[in-house]
C-alpha cells in the first residue's frame, strides 16, 4: 500500500512578529568574580580560583631536603577542612560554618600578606584537598619557654624581636592574628627562627564587627538610602512627584563593609574585650596577647589569669613582679584597650646588647 503524501501548510497567526520571535542579544561577557562557597569542602573544589594560587617562586626562602639531576624536593604540609557532625538531643550539629570561616580567613592572610621570614610560607592549593604550607621542623614556643636551663636574656630579646617583626608586618596589611599564643608560634631547628601560623581567627581591621554570640546566618537587610524631605510648598501629601518639587542630587553609593565576628582564642592570651564580645580593634587585641607571651617568655613558664578577673581587665596581684627584661613593655601592653594600651610597632624592637627604654 502506497503511503499517502502529506502537505504541511504554514499558518501565521499575526501579521507581525511576536515578542518571542525577535532575536535577543546576548549580554556582554564580564569578568568572573569568585564568590566564596558555603560548604568548606568545596573551597578547594575544581577549578581552584586564581585568588588562592601560589605567589611567584614560593620556595624562594625554603631549603630542599633532597635534589636530583632535574628536580628539587621540598617538605610541605597539606591542611584540609575537617567537618564534624554530631547528633545532640535529636538535632544534627555541625562545625561546617566555623570551618569555612577559619579557612577563608587563613587563605585571606596567605594571599594578601607578602612573604616574610617570620610567617609560614604559602605554596598554593591542591584541588579537592586543601592548602599547602611549608613544613616547619622545630617545636612550639611553649616547648622553648619551658626548657631548662632557662633562656638567656639575649635569647628572650631575639624571640621578642622576631615576634614583633612578624606581627607588625601582618598588621601593616590591615589584618590581625586573632589567636596569638605559645602554641601558635613555631620555632625552627636549629636556626631558632620564629614562624607565625594558624590565622583562622584573623579579621580585617576595616570590617564591621558583630558580637560572637550573634547568629550570622540571619543577615539583616541592607538599609535603604534615606530620601530628603519634600520642601516645595506646591507638593501635596498625595502627590510627591509634583513638577515644582526640586529634585535632590543622588546620594553617593554606599560602600558596604564586611561584617566579621571576633571569637575568643586561647586563654589566657585572649584580650579582655574579646572575652566580653566587645572588641572593636583586633590589632590592639593582638598587642594584649603579645604582652602575655612576653610575661611567659620573661618568666620561662606558663602563667594564668582567672577568666572572671580577665574579663574585667584585672591582673593577679604580683603578676608583673620579678620580670627582668619586659616589665615596662608588659605593663603597657596589658592595659585596658581604651586606657592607653600600647600598639605593636617595629620601632619597639630591642637591641640585644643594650636595654631599650620606652
From TrEMBL:
Residue spans of biased composition, Pro residues class: 245-254
Domain of life where this protein originates: Eukaryota
SUPFAM superfamilies xref list: Protein kinase-like (PK-like)
Residue stretches making up the Protein kinase domain: 59-358
Pfam family, one: Pkinase
Signal peptide: none
Record-linked SMART domains: S_TKc
Name of the protein described by the UniProt record: Protein kinase domain-containing protein
Organism taxonomic ancestry: Eukaryota, Fungi, Dikarya, Basidiomycota, Agaricomycotina
